[in-house]
C-alpha cells in the first residue's frame, strides 16, 4: 500500500466497536477492517498467515480473511474494530498486515471522537447528518494516514529486531546508568508497549528482570575481581540504594552480598 493509492481513493467510515474477547472477523468483499490495540496485545491469524502478535494495529483485507483475533488468556487486552469501505468501489486498495505508530495518544483521541460522534451525537436534519458523516470520514482518513505514514517510516529504519538488539547492547554497556522503559523505547524508535513485547520475545525476560540480572552479574564480577566495598560495588552496578541492592542480590543469587563475599574467601 502506498500514498499513490491513498490519494486516489476515499475511505468511508462504517462501524466502530470495542472488545476484550477473542473473535473471528469475516466481512464481505467491500468492507475493510482496522484492528487497533488499546491495551496489552492480541494475536491475529488467517488461513494463509502465521499468527502475528499485534501491539498497535493490524489492517485486515477482505481477500485474506477470515481473521481470528485471539486475546491472551492470562492478560487483559482491549482493542478497537474499525470497519470502513473504500470509494470508488472496486478500487485497488491493498492495505494489509501489521501497522506501526508513534502517535498512540493522537490515535486514541480520534478513536474516542469516532465513538462519541457515532453513539452520542444526535442529528435532526439531513444537513446535520451529512456534516457528521463528513466528520467521521475525515477522522477515518486521518487515522489511516498516520498508520500508513509512520509504518513506512519504521520500515525505512532498522528492523524491529535489530533495534531491540541495539538497545540490549546499550544496556550491557551502560547498565550503571538510570535506564528507563521510555528512554529505551524511544532509542529503538517504537512505542513502549511494542518495545516491551519485542524485548521479551528476543531476550526471554522483561526489561526489569533483564536489567536486574545484568546488574547483579556485574556486581558478582566486581566482587570476584576487586576489593571494593559492597556499597561502592552497588553504586557501580547501577543501584542508588545499598539496601535495595542487597535485597535484589539475595533474590537473584540466593544469599546476601556479605555471604557471597564469605563464600569467595573460602575458594
UniProtKB/TrEMBL annotation:
Pfam families on file: HTH_18
Domain HTH araC/xylS-type: 165-263
UniProt superkingdom: Bacteria
Entry keyword annotation includes Endoplasmic reticulum: no
A molecular function (GO) term: sequence-specific DNA binding
The keyword Transport appears for this protein: no
Protein keywords: DNA-binding, Transcription, Transcription regulation
Name of the protein in its database record: AraC family transcriptional regulator
Amino acid at each position: 500500500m502506498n500514498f499513490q493509492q491513498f490519494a486516489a481513493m476515499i475511505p468511508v467510515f462504517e462501524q466502530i466497536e470495542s472488545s476484550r474477547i477473542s473473535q473471528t472477523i469475516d466481512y464481505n468483499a467491500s468492507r475493510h477492517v482496522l484492528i487497533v490495540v488499546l491495551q496489552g496485545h492480541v494475536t491475529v491469524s488467517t488461513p494463509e498467515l502465521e499468527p502475528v502478535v499485534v501491539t498497535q494495529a493490524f489492517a485486515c483485507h477482505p481477500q485474506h480473511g477470515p481473521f481470528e483475533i485471539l486475546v491472551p488468556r492470562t492478560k487483559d487486552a482491549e482493542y478497537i474494530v474499525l470497519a470502513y469501505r473504500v470509494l470508488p468501489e472496486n478500487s485497488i486498495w491493498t492495505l494489509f498486515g501489521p501497522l506501526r505508530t508513534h502517535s498512540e495518544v493522537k490515535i486514541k483521541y480520534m478513536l474516542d471522537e469516532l465513538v462519541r460522534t457515532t453513539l452520542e451525537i444526535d442529528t435532526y436534519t439531513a444537513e446535520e447528518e451529512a456534516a457528521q458523516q463528513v466528520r467521521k470520514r475525515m477522522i477515518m482518513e486521518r487515522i489511516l494516514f498516520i498508520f500508513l505514514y509512520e509504518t513506512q517510516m519504521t520500515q525505512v529504519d532498522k528492523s524491529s529486531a535489530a533495534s531491540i538488539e541495539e538497545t540490549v547492547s546499550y544496556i550491557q554497556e551502560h547498565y550503571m546508568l538510570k535506564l528507563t522503559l521510555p528512554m529505551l523505547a524511544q532509542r529503538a524508535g517504537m512505542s513502549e508497549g511494542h518495545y516491551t513485547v519485542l524485548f521479551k520475545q528476543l531476550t526471554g525476560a522483561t526489561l526489569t528482570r533483564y536489567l536486574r540480572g545484568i546488574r547483579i552479574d556485574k556486581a558478582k564480577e566486581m566482587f570476584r575481581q576487586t576489593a571494593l566495598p559492597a556499597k561502592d560495588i552497588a553504586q557501580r552496578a547501577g543501584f542508588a540504594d545499598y539496601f535495595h541492592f542487597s535485597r535484589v542480590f539475595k533474590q537473584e543469587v540466593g544469599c546476601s552480598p556479605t555471604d557471597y563475599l564469605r563464600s569467595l574467601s573460602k575458594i
